[in-house]
What does this fold into?
Amino acid sequence: MHTYGLLRNSFQPPDEIRIMRTMWRHRAGLVAEAASCIQRIQKSMAEMNLRLGNAIGDLSGMTGMAILHAILNGERDPSKLAARAQPGIKAPQTKIAESLRGTWREELLFVMRQELDWYETCKKKIAECDEKLKLHLPICPRQRASTPLL
It folds into this structure.
């Protein structure tokens, strides 16, 4: 059909657009994987009856990461863990400490460590994608509003 001119050519964006689209899609996959890591960490914590997510809004924030690192470095005292909360956290330290009372199971701590390592790797790779995207933004041609990049 193409030989007889019955098919129209498909749209092929310029190489710069293809590069940007590939990088954005890859970055979106990394962001989704990082979010999955946080969910698996929360699942491990829930299985140990640790409800940190009820006390602080974002486990991947500064307070959550500080507490997670302390837990994985061997700290088990809820009040010492709660003392790692950043000043802007709305929950009082007593509520944070209460949410950190549970059972400490080695196999779940192992899973948490692996997931946290993978989360940090994903964050590093997201930052690398951001740097690569910054390099391509100046050379990427301007698109009309009707032509989607993705």
The mean pLDDT is 88.
